[in-house]
Amino acid sequence: MIKYSISIISKILFSFFLTIIFSCRGEVIATDNDLSNFGWALYESGDYVEALAWFEESIKTDSGHYDAYNGVGWTMGQLRQADSAVYYFKNYLLRDSSDFNDKLDFYAGLSFAYNAVGDDAKSREYAQTYFFGTQNKELGDPNWCFCHKTDINMLDVRLVLAISEFRLALFQNCQSSINNAYDDLGTADGDSLKNGESKGTRLLMDEYPLNYDLTTINGRTFLANHLEILQNKLASNNGENNLSCSEVNGQGGGYCN
């Protein structure tokens, strides 16, 4: 079987798209959804520069199209332009955003973007108050993932929350966030994450949940070590987070059907 690369398929789709638009049967005007959908196809293929162009064109077509702002925000993040990601995410949220899909995408994106620019207070606010604070458990929000890169999920928001709290010297909050992340992972008893993982010659923990004396340097050092362990555990290239990104009855907010 001949295997085609995603980039080649994208180019074929692009040519087909243009053929439809400029066919001899008459010009067909691409909608904002058409433009953003193709932007996501390019995003998923890793062509972030081209994806950005399509999302921006979608915004020009309809300045109120939430999915295009979502696309620009996440694409800017991939292009290491976190400040621009913040701008586009917030630009849409300043509108009347009481009724649109994928709110958690925006809140997670802002948590990551503010973390990247070093604004830990804002990163914590969007992770704790907006993302976790507005989850609808009846819809299964705790299983949120970013549908266009499904190895980014709710556990990554837990991690960025814990990192922000550590940097803000909110060590007790950080410890709670780490414990919540371990609960979300569903780590079985006996797993090294819960019952002791060696860091060099040191045993990091002897009980679960974590309950370090955070007034001591040792306690805070152990906490930092757990942040490193979680970061490695949740690395997007290892797929070890065990969360399902499928919600059959999900309506918006990070459900991947």
- Helix/sheet category: mainly alpha
Radius of gyration: 21 Å
Number of domains: 2
The topology string of helices and strands comes to HHHHHHHHHHEEH
Rounded mean pLDDT is 77
**Shape type:** elongated
Percent strand equals: under 5%
The total count of strands amounts to 2
Helix content: 55-70%
Main beta-sheet annotation: 2 strands, antiparallel
Count of individual helical segments: 11
Order of strands in the sheet with most strands: 1-2
End-to-end separation in angstroms reads 28 Å
Poorly predicted parts: 1-12, 18-26, 247-254
Give a verbal description of the structure.
This protein has 257 residues and is mainly alpha-helical. It has two domains: 1-100, Serine Threonine Protein Phosphatase 5, Tetratricopeptide repeat (Alpha Horseshoe); 103-257, no CATH class. The protein has helices at residues 6-21, 32-45, 48-61, 66-78, 82-93, 103-117, 120-131, 154-167, 171-185, 192-195, 217-233; strands spanning 198-199, 202-203. Strands 1-2 form a two-stranded antiparallel ribbon. The chain is elongated. The model is unreliable at 1-12, 18-26 and 247-254 (pLDDT under 50).
Descriptors for this entry?
mainly alpha, Serine Threonine Protein Phosphatase 5, Tetratricopeptide repeat, 2 domains, two-stranded antiparallel ribbon, 11 helices, elongated, disordered N terminus
